Amino acid sequence: MSNPAQDDxxxxxxxxxxxxxxxxxxxxxxxxxxxxPISAATGLSPQAAGLIVTLTxxxxxxxxxxxxxxxxxxxxxxxxxxxxxxxxxxxxxAAFSTSxxxxxxxxxxxxxxxxxxxIIVPFAxxxxxxxxxxHTVGKVVSGLLLGIMLARPAASLIADASNWHVVFGGxxxxxxxxxxxxxxxxxxxxxTATISYPALMASLWHLFLRTPVxxxxxxxxxxxxxxxxxxxxxxxxxLAGPQFHLSQTGIAVFALVGMxxxxxxxxxxxxxxxxxxxxxxxxxxxxxxxxxxxPMVAPESRNLALAMLVIASIVLDMxxxxxxxxxxxxxxxxxxxxxxxxxxVYFALFFAGGALGSALGGWMYATHGWHAxxxxxxxxxxxxxxxxxxxxxxxSSALNAGVKI
Length: 405
Prior knowledge:
InterPro entries: MFS, MFS_dom, MFS_trans_sf. By secondary structure, the chain is mainly alpha-helical. It is 77% helix and 0% strand.
């Protein structure tokens, strides 16, 4: 826990950490709107095109499990910079890829190195006072989500003006610049833990078993992030198809509008600080369901159908943004000494849901069509909402028991 007497994190540092996490995590999403041209250039079949996104998420999941926990053991600034240098090298490999195996290998490495962003988020929590931690995390996560949402349109616009190779080459230079700035600006943070790496890894399983909040929050966000990944894997393919005929620039504009969903992050942080996490979670999960119900209306007008998809993207992104902050605020309250490990397990579990969503969505769209993909996407937050009902029931029972006493 933070020392109540410590100075709170400065606004400038919050801005730096928010910008850094956004630029880092953007690397995971450049390929989402470029699945078509990348798969065509590297020889991937339509059924396997989802692997472009899935392997990046698998790499990220591995990094969350095996690299992020090191934030509780090693000096944080050095760990972050090392991760960014590795990411920059993998982006260079992606930029010069000419075959499927080469690009997919780079995608795995990009995901692995980009977990540096998830060492930065607990860093921000560590620098914050308890009373403002949710708000601070909300601001940093807003930067992260803006990075996610800007990555897609930026990649489309750059690819339309040049080609997809330039997207990854430019990203490599950008990540290298971020590494140099963080090396100069971040304070040192040396964890107090003295355990070995094998013991650190073994502790992840114990944390999972002994931390019900972690399991529950990971399950909620696995449902939402699975639907989010599915949506942004199949929707660009739909937009480029015969119904909409959008160019990469058109897809970029569509993705850019979805950025409006990021406004939910600081709002969710304030709600969490005020003790309204339970009901805010239900609202976030419900937004995920609504985001997939809207496109099913399918008006005959092309423009109305496109407008419905735009609204759906904003609604879905709002749900994901809010729920991510609610989950991180909950697990960051459990203790500073295990914060990196908790964050690593939390992200690993819900990114596994994301990998499943993108792979399943790509396959469903290729084999059964758009509506089957939408129904699959709706099932992810729908199941999470059913699980939430068990928490609500337990909470209500506890309140009733308290009243009787």
